[in-house]
């Protein structure tokens, strides 16, 4: 089974269509299967998580839209038949899974204690969207327990929610040996037969591993499990194979039978990898006169850093096999003459070669530092313990910036964020770019942005916290909401009350873009029955029920203007700050639209806001409520007050 990870906030339905086309081509020559255990749509709750790099970020709405688009791109067939699958996707890891191995606490033993409110407004929405909107073929349950129950043995989470409430059309699979884990590591059952029976009865259809193959028959013979439960599981698994066309005869005569090596690594697909990387680059700082660099004015460019000439680092984890690599050094050298010093032997940077790096920076017209981390410091089964750049990287950056003759561009390669306050506040460091793990064409994309061939438009999909955050917040605390009684600051931009280095949605471009409100209501009335209690007494919220919600929506129109001289894309985020009821978020994302703006042009952007879906909050018991009172809508620096009342 393969899983592909693509850049974070900027993926698109068509990108995944290309992935599934290449998957079918590789399947036809015996190099791949047709079930892909991807995407990872867990919430990037804590910046230390080693697998945050696989996810779309910290926001539930973004993760929901990403997940359903990813699934549709992989699964939808060219003839549009919803009963068929091009390949089968799998949304993982269900649920509240976002700790791998932190200070001796590992995912095989961790019990995630989650409130119903956090479960329903943070952890569950991406999976719900994957199943309902994306029609995903599979959901994978996780290793961890949630509130004392292994997820792969919880009938409420599996049979109750995934198959019962959300109506999954497909199969539920365990993470690798999850059933073995809850028997042998968590000691949740006394016998292996009880574990097998419990998992299948809870709604598990397929065990990744050998545990069910060894113990299910004995569970049936012991009277712990009915054969009808096994029949259901087998039916769900084989129905997926049927939708994939496994039993339709000669594969070469089927819809994708003619795909082969010629359809893998095509020039168009390689260009798409470069475009995806370009779209994912986030410009975090840009002083006047820094970026973009002029490829004609720059005669010599100093390129420094342990990630400046890397290949495999760029493709992250759960990676495919690249067509070819373009390293940052190669990408930059394609435009200007470069001098190169690694500065550190690896990203741990135990001893920096500061003098060599300073020497080339002092004689170059500009300097690019390519720093950050790699899979040695964040990965599956390995979480970080701090938010600082490792070893002597800060020393190398600071000393080079002090010695450099021209602009200094700091490029950070990583999955998670850092406390880089030292660089943000250093005037000698004129620009900062975060590039994630940008894929095989990452070096070319970095050069495209640095030299102005591409106007950056990426936005941060997660908050970057100060180092003090990790001193206050243990990874094991799953609470999203702050607790003033003990100084707990909360998590993510939606709830976190402390200082940030950068926050969700941050990202600059080479253009100055303005937003102007064209159309938005100031008052919306919620229709209620004549005898409703909230007509007779003051209520802070009302239930988001069908009779109140029907056709309850309004439009927001915005004029978005590019006042700069660079053309490019611009993402418009619509946020809302709801009234302070039910421990509601201080701010949450309602929607986003990407527009392409040529220089000095403008565009009209329209949002349709569904009051019950978009302006409701989840209460303490997990129910959706429409918060009454003032909602503050935000787009960039623009704010608009909206009153919801009965």
Query: Total strand count, please?
Result: 25
- Strand content is 15-25%
Number of domains: 3
What topology, given as strand order, has the largest sheet?
A: 9-14-13-12-10-11
Mind summarizing the main beta sheet?
6 strands, mixed
Tally of DSSP helical segments: 20
Keywords: Glycosidase, Hydrolase, Signal
Protein name: Beta-xylosidase/alpha-L-arabinofuranosidase 2-like
GO molecular function, one term: alpha-L-arabinofuranosidase activity
Domain Fibronectin type III-like: 570-639
Describe the structure.
With 646 residues, the protein is of the alpha/beta class. It contains 20 helices and 25 strands. The protein has 3 domains: 13-261, Alpha-Beta Barrel (TIM Barrel); 267-458, Rossmann fold (3-Layer(aba) Sandwich), CATH 3.40.50.1700; 513-644, Immunoglobulins (Immunoglobulin-like, Sandwich), CATH 2.60.40.10. This is Beta-xylosidase/alpha-L-arabinofuranosidase 2-like. One of its GO terms (biological process) is xylan catabolic process. Residues 570-639 form the Fibronectin type III-like domain. It comes from Durio zibethinus.
In short:
This protein is an alpha/beta fold and 646 residues long. The protein is 28% helix and 20% strand. It contains 20 helices and 25 strands.
């Amino acid at each position: 089974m393969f899983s592909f990870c693509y850049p974070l906030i900027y993926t698109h339905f068509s990108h995944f269509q290309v992935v599934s086309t290449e998957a079918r081509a590789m399947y036809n020559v015996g190099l791949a299967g047709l079930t892909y255990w991807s995407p990872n749509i867990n919430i990037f709750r804590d910046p230390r998580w080693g697998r945050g790099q696989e996810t779309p970020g910290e926001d539930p709405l973004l993760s929901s839209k990403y997940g359903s688009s990813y699934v549709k791109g992989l699964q939808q067939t060219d003839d549009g038949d919803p009963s068929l699958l091009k390949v089968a996707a799998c949304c993982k890891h269900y649920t509240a899974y976002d700790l791998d191995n932190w200070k001796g606490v590992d995912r095989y033993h961790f019990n995630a204690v989650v409130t119903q409110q956090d479960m329903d407004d943070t952890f569950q929405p991406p999976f719900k969207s994957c199943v309902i909107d994306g029609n995903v073929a599979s959901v994978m349950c996780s290793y961890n327990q949630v509130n004392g129950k292994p997820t792969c043995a919880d009938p409420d989470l599996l049979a109750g929610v995934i198959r019962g409430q959300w109506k999954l059309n497909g199969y539920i699979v365990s993470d690798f040996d999850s059933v073995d884990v809850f028997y042998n590591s968590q000691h949740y059952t006394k016998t292996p037969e009880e574990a097998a029976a419990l998992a299948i009865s809870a709604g598990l259809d397929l065990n990744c591993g050998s545990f069910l193959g060894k113990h299910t028959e004995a569970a049936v013979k012991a009277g712990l499990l009915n054969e009808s439960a096994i029949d259901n599981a087998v039916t769900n698994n084989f129905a997926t194979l049927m939708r994939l066309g496994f039993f339709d005869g000669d594969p070469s005569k089927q819809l994708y039978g003619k795909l082969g090596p010629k359809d893998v690594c095509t020039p168009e697909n390689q260009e798409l990898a470069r475009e995806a990387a370009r779209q994912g680059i986030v410009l975090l700082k840009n002083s006047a006169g820094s970026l973009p660099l002029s490829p004609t004015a720059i005669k010599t460019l100093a390129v420094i850093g342990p990630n400046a000439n890397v290949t495999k680092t760029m493709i992250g984890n759960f990676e495919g096999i690249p067509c070819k690599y373009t390293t940052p050094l190669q990408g930059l050298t394609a435009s200007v003459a470069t001098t190169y010093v690694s500065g550190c032997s690896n990203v741990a940077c135990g001893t920096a070669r500061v003098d060599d790096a300073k020497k080339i920076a002092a004689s170059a017209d500009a300097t690019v530092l390519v720093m950050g981390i790699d899979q040695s410091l964040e990965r599956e089964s390995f979480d970080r313990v701090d938010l600082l750049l490792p070893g002597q990287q800060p020393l190398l950056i600071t000393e080079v910036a002090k010695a450099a003759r021209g602009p200094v561009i700091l490029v950070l390669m990583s999955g998670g964020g850092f406390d880089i306050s030292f660089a943000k506040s250093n005037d000698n460091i004129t620009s900062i770019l975060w590039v994630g793990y940008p894929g095989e064409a990452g070096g070319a994309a970095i050069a495209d942005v640095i030299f102005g061939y591409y106007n950056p438009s990426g936005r941060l999909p997660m908050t970057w916290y100060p180092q003090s955050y990790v001193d206050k917040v243990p990874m094991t605390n799953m609470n999203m909401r702050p607790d003033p009684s003990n100084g707990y600051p909360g998590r993510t931009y939606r709830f976190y009350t402390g200082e940030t280095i950068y926050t969700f949605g941050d990202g600059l471009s080479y253009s100055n873009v303005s937003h102007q409100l064209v159309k938005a209501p100031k008052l919306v009335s919620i229709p209620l029955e004549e005898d409703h209690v909230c007509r007779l007494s003051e209520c802070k919220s009302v239930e988001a029920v069908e009779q109140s919600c029907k056709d309850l929506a309004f439009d927001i129109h915005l004029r978005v203007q590019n006042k700069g001289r660079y053309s490019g894309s611009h993402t418009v985020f619509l946020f809302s700050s709801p009234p302070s009821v039910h421990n509601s978020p201080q701010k949450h994302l309602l929607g986003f639209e990407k527009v392409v703006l040529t220089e000095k042009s403008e565009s009209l952007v329209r949002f349709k806001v569904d009051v019950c879906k978009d302006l409701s909050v989840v209460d303490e018991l997990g129910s959706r409520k429409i918060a009454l009172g003032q909602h503050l809508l935000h787009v960039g620096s623009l704010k608009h007050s909206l009153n919801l009342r009965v």
